[in-house]
Amino acid sequence: IKETFPPEYTQEQVEAALDELLPYLKGETDAFQIHPELDERARAAARAISTVIDELNLADQVIDRAIGPNLESALDQFSIGGAQLNITPERAREIAHRIAPEEWVNAQINNALGEFVAWLTGDQDTFTVRIRFADRVPAARDEIKALLREAEFTDFLFDTVIGPRLTEAVGRLSALSFG
Asked: So what's the pLDDT on residue 104?
């Protein structure tokens, strides 16, 4: 709160308010106005919130409590021909940390905060948060490839899809007669 409303600012605002309010209370004027500089206070609040976000390690919590469990759920539902990936919650969190590292999540949170403050202060007419995952696709692809290798999906695919089709094709070839 001190970062958002430092003592000097608060004192200036109270003095200015009293300068306007006292003549009104004495009946010397019919109205009074107070003009706090809320735009700069909102920006200061955003800086303070950003610091608190870093201190609370919010990005790590988002990864562990949101991204990891959603990734685990998505991978549990991934199957090919009945073969499924079995993934533990701990493993899902590890993968989530590699796909969406703390620095990246922090950048997304700070971007959202910046967009909100820009809207709040009138610098922007709308409040839109865009989270771009395009730069995370290579990391996600690598993690999925590693999971498929560990689960020996290549053996599964060969045994259940490729092998039977090859056998069928070879069987048709052996039925060909010559001469």
From this structure: 95
SS3 annotation, 25-36: HCCCCCCCCCCC
Q: Which two tokens stand for residue 23?
A: 């003549």
Return the H-helix or E-strand segment holding 15: helix 7-25
* Residue type present at position 72: E
Q: pLDDT tens, 89-147?
A: 999 999 999 999 999 999 999 999 999 988 988 888 998 888 888 889 999 989 988 88
pTM above 0.90, yes or no: no
Instruction: At 126, list the tokens.
Output: 């709308």
Report how far residue 76's alpha carbon sits from residue 28's, in angstroms, rounded to the nearest whole number: 74
Tell me which DSSP letter residue 136 carries. Answer: G
Exposure letters 121-131 (e unless 16+ CB within 10 A, then b): eeeeeeeeeee
Strands (E), the chain: 79-80, 83-84
**pLDDT band, residue 172 (cuts 50/70/90):** low
Closest-CA residue to 93 (of 62, 63, 130, 135): 63
